[in-house]
Amino acid sequence: MDAEIVEALRAGDEAAFAMLVAQYGASMLRVAQMYVRTRAVAEEVVQDAWLGVLRGIGSFEGRSSLKTWIFRILTNTAKTRGERESRSVPFSALEGVDDEAAVEPERFQSEGRWAGHWAAPPSPWTDIPENRLLSTETREVVARAIAALPPAQATVITMRDVEGFDSEDVCNVLGITETNQRVLLHRARSKVRRALEDYLGDH
Amino acid sequence: MKLARDLTCKELVELVTEYLEGGLTAAERERFEEHLGFCDWCVTYLDQMRQTLVAVGSLREDDVSPAMEASLLATFRGWKAR
Amino acid sequence: MIAYKLLEPGRVAPFSRVVWPEPGEWLEAESVDPCRSGIHACRALQLPPWLALGDLWEVELEDVVVDERKVVARRGRLVRRVDEWDPAAQRAFGVTCGDVTARRAERSPELQVFADDIATAPPAPVCGYMAARAAELQDGSAGYDAERRRQGEWLVEALRLVR
Q1: Which structural domains are found in chain A, ordered by start?
Q2: What is the pLDDT of residues B14-35, one digit of tens each?
Q3: B neighbour chains, 3+ CB pairs within 8 Å
Q4: Over the range B4-35, which residues count as b (16 or more CB within 10 Å of their CB) and which as e?
């Protein structure tokens, strides 16, 4: 499949290009926004990235998947642009300052025979109808929670859980190890769950 | 040998991502699941995590704006004509 | 053979997330790899550690591949939900756990706090866990296993389960 599309692109086939844009364009825009300040700049980054794809398609060797290659170009473009705007955080900084736990320690018993077990346990969300979980308001809470994450965590959860990349793709595109990716994903998901818990608990 | 019943809730919540990713060893997964067998609260927590993933996934919109699509096509035609 | 399974509301298997068909309809496993795939269930006496996972169901299994600490088979169908495992039965289960723990505390006073915890009437699975933990403190792993076995026998008797 990849080989066919690559051939078509090299031959200047507009339909092939349109198909790739339809497939990846929206994802690329969301990932670009992890690195730069505004949507407008993110759109420019995506434009530049596609130009980079077209310029490089002649020498694409197929050592990685087309998708991985496209997104690597995107993140490199976004990083460069982001650095210029001092917005992006280099991924070497992902051994983060935060050593935070998935759930605040106070919610567990700190001593006694049930030390480590819940002191303030979570309440089921089963009463929440599915349409409430997916309502515009709830999605805004989730989007805000992701936007408030440290950049590396935001990027990983966006790529994995919003965009549906698998973990191998994310590691290849971002140039991080599986372990790093897991840690970032864990912290990100834990924080978003917490944000949802706070929101759903109050309403 | 660490027993399933020695796994505390505090430890379990740190393993949830690993569990959902399929990254736990068979022995660790057994401990994790046995803990869930007696602990409704951790069952609830895991369920909340699953629902969180559903909510996060719902952010995905699959279409590029028409304006963006148009300008990308222009980019393509410019490149093709070089 | 007849065995038992805990399912979340909607007949959702707690770990695999598979939705079981309505009672009577067979569910086939694509492959059988204990702990990973195949139809998993347990004998009545093996139920106590799993009670938090949902509603209790009776299942009929065919082509049983594993029958030790749990049962794994190639196909199974739900027979009925065991509605006798209702709030009253669950409270009664908790009470017996409290009683045996209080008796253990007569021998070992430091276990009285466990009996007190159970007396606050947490959910049945938690009572079972606390009682087993207390037994373990008193008599080690053998104590833990014995208490879990006692709980299993209680369930068989009270809910008229198939052994």
Answers
A1: 2-84 (1.10.1740.10), 98-201 (1.10.10.10)
A2: 999 999 999 999 889 999 999 9
A3: A, C
A4: bbebbbbebbebbbbbbeeebeeebbebbbbb
Nearest alpha carbon to residue C49 among C161, C159, C144: C144
Residue C55, chain A, CB below 8 Å: the answer is no
Q: And the tokens for A25?
A: 């364009």
Q: How far away is chain A from the Cα of B43, in angstroms, using its nearest Cα? A: 9
Give dist(CA C139, CA A59) in Å, integer.
71
To the nearest 10°, the Cα dihedral for C88, C91, C97, C103?
Answer: -90
The residues near B39 (Cβ < 8 Å, ≥ 6 apart) are: A117, A118, B9, B12, C52, C125, C126, C129
Helix orientation angle between C87-107 and C112-119, rounded to the nearest 10 degrees: 160
Tell me how many degrees the CA angle A66-B58-A50 measures, rounded to the nearest 5. Answer: 30
Q: Is C81 on the interface with A (CB under 8 A)?
A: no
B55 touches chain C (CB under 8 A): no
Closest residue in chain C to residue B47, using alpha carbons only:
C14
Cβ-based contacts of A43 with chain B (< 8 Å): 68
Residue type, B43: V
Residue-level pLDDT at A96? 52
Residue A87: predicted pLDDT:
57
**DSSP-based three-state secondary structure for C83:** coil
Is C113 an interface residue toward A (CB < 8 Å)? yes
CA distance B59 to A162: 6
Quick one: tokens of A74?
């995107």
From chain B, the residues in CB contact with C143 under 8 A are none
Low-confidence ranges of chain A (pLDDT < 70): 85-99, 126-133, 202-203
pTM: 0.87
Length of chain B: 82
